Amino acid sequence: MTALPQTLDEAISQAKAATLQALEDGRRLIQVELVFPEIALEAQKLAQDFIPILQEFGGQPKIFFPDTGAAALARRDWGETPFKVTDLGSSRSPIDNKIDPEDESFLVVNPSSVEVGQVERLVNLAGDRPIILLIPKLEDVAVVGIGYTARQLRERLLSQIYSCYYIRPLEGAALYRCHPHPWQVWLETADGNYTQIAEQPQKPVGEALDRILIRATTGENTEEATPTQKRRGGIFGELERFIKALTQ
Rounded CA gap, 229 and 127, in Å? Predict the structure, then answer.
């Protein structure tokens, strides 16, 4: 059993190890999610941490940012690199023209629901070449829309993605997954630490997650009950404050 990280560096270290293990286990389309406020502002730095994994496992990577501005900023900050940095494309510059035969793996940094179509096209063109989606936001219905076509596109892509690392603070709890371990729910204790209260083969969301928290906090097992609301403290409060401090 893995333990919850107590610092951002520890979370990144766990995520890198989980990513490499997932690749070695044959996964080819994987995502890493660190669900903290302002984490997107650290996307470029996080990308630098994950590029060596693809270089070690998948050979020559290509790095994709959501738009031309983010890609240009990374090229400026990184200088000369042995890998190419570009954007996910647009109607005028389709992603089909941005994938080369010598590309052996791909890192997609902070894609949003706006780029769902481009990401799916990349997946189709990549074949069996590894793809890492780093801190993606592909499920934002408010952005991509709720129409049938948009929903079908999003669900078609999401059904293919394997989540190898996920950490999300809740009110007095946390949802966590670190490959190859199952999904876990952790509850904050009175001393600000966390204890594991559940383990699931699939990601618990919505009412399923509520029921787990209800049983742990009230002992009840009814759909009418609601989880006890607690302050967010402990290690996750410290992580969020640390991330905010980095971006100020």
Answer: 45
Phi and psi based region of residue 105 (left: phi greater than 0; alpha: psi -120 to 50; beta: remaining): beta
The pLDDT tens digits for 109-154 are 999 888 888 999 999 999 999 999 999 998 764 444 545 556 666 6
pTM here is 0.86
Nearest to 122 by CA among 131, 114, 113: 131
